[in-house]
Amino acid sequence: MELLPFWKNFSTAQRTPRILILVSLTLIILGLIPLYHPFYRYPANLIVDHSSKITSHGTNTTNYQKIIKQDDEDTCDVFIGEWVRNPDAPYYTNMTCWAIHEHQNCMKYGRPGTDFLKWRWKPKGCDLPIFNPYQFLDMMRNKSMAFIGDSVGRNQMQSLICLLSRVEYPIDISNDTDQNFRRWKYMTYNFTLAAYWSPFLVTVKESDPDGPSHTGLFNLYLDEPDPKWTTQIEQFNYLILNSAHWYTRCSVYYEKNQIIGCHYCGLPNITDLSINYGYQKALKTTLKAINSLENFKGVTFVRTIAPSHFEGGEWNKGGNCVRQGPFRSNETALDGISMEFYRTQVEEFKVAAKEGKEKGKRFRLLDMTQAMLLRPDGHPSKYGHWPNANVVLYNDCVHWCLPGPIDTWSDFLLHMLKLEGRRALEENIQL
């Protein structure tokens, strides 16, 4: 076989062995490949390496070393920090993602400017990588994840679907048409994503659709976990649990099928109890229910409250959220019912985690509270509908625009999942 003229002359002049020429060509080709690889758009330290050797215990030693080198994960609390500029965001638009509900589609309804999209979370003393959809889906291969709770939890799941849309869209595999209970599957990765609507987490019956405050009156059975999700989740690998906001509504509290009190129910001869009384009882019931599931071997993430930001009045009395940028951490503080809810979540999480550890269960705290407390600019406000539309929540300062600050929750989630991978690898090596 004769070399091309250039390489022939080069070989003659330099007396270079053919093997060196082949090596040179190989290096050139390998140098070009990354330009076309999908991971080229993401930081190199996020890429999962599958080429490393597997030990006799089935442990990927290269990946393990890569994970344990991140020493700051042991010493840095990623949930404490500030918002810093990120000119690369957002990573999808309201035109590229079908999962955005109308009341979170702020750009469609005329929200001016995109500055609120140009931020990322920077923990104090370390860094939190931007969400890598390729790595996430690879880690979720042959696994399943369920979001359980209220509409803010659904908001989080929709954000995740939008972020993953850069790689793949899921197909709907739901068993029925009820939009409150949905299942999707990422076929390439055999990854199932599910949503279970349960805003109180416990069994509830609406006794009056109007109620004292025109938001309904609910009978809450504080000692009965909601069977709509408890009977469905034993085979999931990951649960993301959230609740709180709905407990501000007028409710009658039941235990052992007996009324024990209520919250602003307006009914005669019934003791008025605090909002947090009902919430703490319900959350304790919820976490005990998970600990009692014999076949559940997954990880439960308890996602803490994302505070609302109504200013100038309550949600139904002219309150709104019109700030244009994030707070600094020294410019605001958690207080009121949000502080009570947060303390309850942390306390009940600790109790459940201690009990669960003895039973082989795993609980993790996905602490979104400080990060979202600092983002009064991230809500739809009046940009979740057309002007003068007849909607219940005219100024929405509870949910989050998509795209928007809630996309950062996936940064946190992936970080936590990597820590779970690290723990599993450590356990395997110890074996």
List the helices and strands and how they pair.
Layout: H1 5-14, H2 18-32, H3 61-68, H4 72-75, E1 81-85, E2 119-123, H5 133-139, E3 144-149, H6 151-164, E4 171-172, E5 181-186, E6 191-197, E7 202-208, E8 217-225, H7 227-230, E9 238-241, E10 251-255, E11 258-263, H8 275-291, E12 299-303, H9 336-359, E13 362-366, H10 369-373, H11 408-430
Parallel strand pairs: 3-6, 3-9, 8-10, 9-12, 12-13
Antiparallel strand pairs: 1-2, 4-5, 5-6, 7-8, 10-11
Helix pairs in contact: 3-11, 8-9
Q: Indicate the percent of residues in helices.
A: 25-40%
Low-confidence stretches: 1-17, 19-23, 25-73
- Taken as a percent bin, the fraction of beta residues is 15-25%
Radius of gyration: 25 Å
Report on the architecture of this protein.
By secondary structure, this protein is α/β, with parallel strands linked by helices. 30% of the residues lie in helices and 17% in strands. The chain contains eleven helices and 13 strands. The chain has helices at 5-14, 18-32, 61-68, 72-75, 133-139, 151-164, 227-230, 275-291, 336-359, 369-373, 408-430, and strands at 81-85, 119-123, 144-149, 171-172, 181-186, 191-197, 202-208, 217-225, 238-241, 251-255, 258-263, 299-303, 362-366. It has a seven-stranded mixed sheet, with helices on both faces. A four-stranded mixed sheet has the order 7-8-10-11, with helices on one face. Strand 7 and strand 8 (217-225) form a beta hairpin. The model is unreliable at 1-17, 19-23 and 25-73 (pLDDT under 50). Pfam families: PC-Esterase, PMR5N. The chain crosses the membrane at residues 20-39. Keywords: Membrane, Signal-anchor, Transmembrane, Transmembrane helix.
